[in-house]
Amino acid sequence: MKERLRGKAIALAALLFIAMVTGGPAAASTVSGAPAVAAGAGSDVVSWGVNVHPEDADWTLEGARRAFDHARKLGCRFVRTDFYWSELEPARDVWDEGRAAWFGAYIDAAAAKGLYVQVILAGAPGWARDLYGASPDAFFEEFEEYCAEVARRYGTRVHYYQIWNEADNFLDFVSLPDDWRLFAGGRAGLESRDADFETYANLTSLPWSEWALDDWMRRAPGAIDIVGVDYYPGTWAMTPYEDWTPLRRVLEKTTDPDDPAYGKKVAVQETGFSTWLCFWHNEKDQRNWINASLPALRTIVSAHNARFPNKVVSCTWYELRDMDTSGGWWLEYHFGILRSDWSKKPGFGDLRARIAEFVPR
Fold this sequence. Notes:
Blueprint: H1 2-5, H2 8-22, E1 47-51, H3 61-74, E2 78-82, H4 85-88, H5 97-112, E3 116-121, H6 126-134, H7 136-154, E4 160-163, H8 179-191, E5 198-203, H9 209-219, E6 226-230, H10 245-254, E7 265-271, H11 283-307, E8 312-317, H12 348-356
Parallel strand pairs: 1-2, 1-8, 2-3, 3-4, 4-5, 5-6, 6-7, 7-8
């Protein structure tokens, strides 16, 4: 949780600034029911997953299994979960064996429910942050070692790794020109212990995001297999619910032979809708968003996958469960399709239906 809340005050200021210059939040769609969408029109199977932070499962296997049951009810094939560096290696070169065992049991519990785990390699501990300031070279060596150790412990049970998280985000402590070293080092660490895997790198929709992606691709060629887009139309982005411009731009880049990202597979690595009342949104709005935004997304994905070999391979709903439905003071607390008491929000069934439409019949 401490990783998720770091810098939120800064982000709130930025969000309010965006609201001022764009005229406030996007107008809510008036959609109240599920539109009829033909399934599978020329599209390959797109795997859907849901984000589950360890704290969303209360750091218990019982909570994890409960989360996995809900993920399966949504029609998800995977859960995307932070294997926090700060939890696994709280002191330099000292691993917390209890936490390491919990993550292993988490993977096994997911598999028992018919789900695989997409591992996020991020969440740097304080000592690593300090190390970056003192000696960037030493920091990147330690990050490579962390990735290698995760692969050594879990590689036979994990195929997909996300290296870092939103490296282009202005809140990230690693400077933008250094970000490529995260991907190069992360890949090298994984390859040292795991022979069969694929990597994601996710980016936001900030003004410099395309530059960042180009830099990663040029300076760490081969490190990234799947380019993930984190985009929240109507919440983080003050755009209409149906707007998917950042995804369209990434698809254009990955199908342009002259672009450094050419040929890369693509994912919607994070999307969703916060029901934070202080931001003029509620649970009904989330349901409307699901029924407006996801069909628009599916149209784009289906058209691309029918035409190009580099598929959109996965989408992830962020996230399964609210951090604090009743008392959360911040937008990030309310992205769940479940409330913090595990009860379903009104859009749960709609989300299940929209996910099903991504799978050809």
